[in-house]
């Protein structure tokens, strides 16, 4: 972002301060080598969990109030933030009188609400459970396992411009495997390597929702990406904001290593703070 873009975005965001909801309660079965010990959003990229990276990105745009939808091993997330101030401060402990003096504080200006939304609750159910903490306000929503470089100021501006209930960031992901072209009768007409034409547009997270979305969520079994999204589309209440820059989820060890390599290089695209 240029300095002028940053100034414009910060002005826009100050006019519409809102909470950021992060889905962080799933089991993370596709990266079970790590997630059997901790929730997937707490898997580290560098020395900090990917959840921290996501929050730092939002914070760089002026979003400092977070609601974390926890579930699986939710106590790990709570303990991390309970110790966050101490771990990011220089302190002196005087053991003779059991006192602590904070010498300098490098912590964040975040307000973090962590809600246990249940072990087996689906994505829509988790969001339904935190409705009372969001209130009757526009809010941001994303997944706790993905990073990108979407311009949050422009995303919010786009959402405000169309007046619908939901905006989802759309990203283009490359086909990872070789491709078979199959005819209607089952005959394989070609077997070739992937190319750019095989890419697909997917939901990249980094969403903006109006509180009216809660009406589309029923109970703990509601999967946000199924019936609620389908009904929002049928009602003409869902828009996409296309992002053609960096986007990467962390579903596998290979994807984790990719993010770690980017961070270690000193040129991680999402590091804008």
**CATH-assigned homologous superfamily:** Spore Coat Polysaccharide Biosynthesis Protein SpsA, Chain A
**Tally of structural domains:** 1
End-to-end Cα distance, whole Å, is: 11 Å
Q: Count the strands?
A: 16
- Total of helices: 10
CATH topology: Spore Coat Polysaccharide Biosynthesis Protein SpsA, Chain A
Radius of gyration: 21 Å
**Percent of residues in helical segments?**
25-40%
Describe this structure in words.
It is a single chain. 30% of the residues lie in helices and 28% in strands. It has one domain: Spore Coat Polysaccharide Biosynthesis Protein SpsA, Chain A. It has 273 residues and is of the alpha/beta class. The strands form 5 sheets. Strands 1, 4, 7, 8, 10, 13, 14 and 15 form an 8-stranded mixed beta sheet that branches. It contains 10 helices and 16 strands.
What is the structure about, briefly put?
The protein is α/β, with parallel strands linked by helices and 273 residues long. It is built from ten helices and 16 strands. It is globular and about 80 Å long.
Helix/strand layout:
Blueprint: H1 3-15, E1 19-24, H2 32-35, E2 44-45, E3 48-49, H3 50-60, E4 65-70, H4 74-82, H5 84-87, E5 89-94, E6 99-105, E7 111-116, H6 123-129, H7 131-134, E8 139-143, E9 146-148, H8 152-162, E10 166-173, E11 179-182, E12 188-192, E13 200-203, E14 207-209, H9 227-234, E15 238-243, E16 247-249, H10 253-264
